[in-house]
Design brief:
With about 130 residues, this protein is mostly helical. Helices cover about 85% and strands about 5% of the residues. It has helices spanning about 15-80, 85-125, and strands at about 1-5, 10. It has a two-stranded antiparallel sheet.
Length: about 130
């Protein structure tokens, strides 16, 4: 490096050009990294939002099903209180169990479909 008359060091032009190129390349690399990081963060936020929405749907459905099942149980209990004989109790019990088994199967299927939709929505790129 050459020394100027005033005592400062002069950086050769070639070295200055290389340093400027290096700084510019580093800036571009950093900008690319930040852009990729922002896209990834947006994707994660979208997936979290979709998962949260799916969980909310599942919770609402489960609470609705629980309310229906409890109401059906109370209705069944009321019918049992009014049964005239053991034959009617047996018939009511059989009907109740059959209806509940069907309802539970339908509820399980619906919850499964909701869970699948939620999982697919959370996995969607850009959700």
């Amino acid at each position: 490096m050459a020394k100027e008359a005033n005592g400062n060091f002069e950086i050769p032009r070639e070295m200055r050009a290389i340093a400027e190129q290096s700084v510019e390349q580093a800036r571009k690399a950093f900008d690319g990294f930040m852009s990729a990081a922002q896209k990834a963060a947006s994707r994660i936020e979208g997936q979290a939002s979709a998962a949260q929405s799916g969980a909310k749907d599942m919770r609402h459905k489960a609470m609705s099903f629980a309310e229906k099942n409890v109401a059906n149980s109370f209705e069944f209990a009321q019918k049992l209180l009014n049964a005239k004989d053991m034959e009617e109790v047996t018939r009511l019990q059989t009907e109740f169990v059959q209806r509940q088994m069907q309802a539970l199967a339908e509820q399980a299927q619906e919850l499964g479909q909701t869970a699948t939709r939620a999982a697919m929505g959370a996995a969607q790129p850009g959700s």
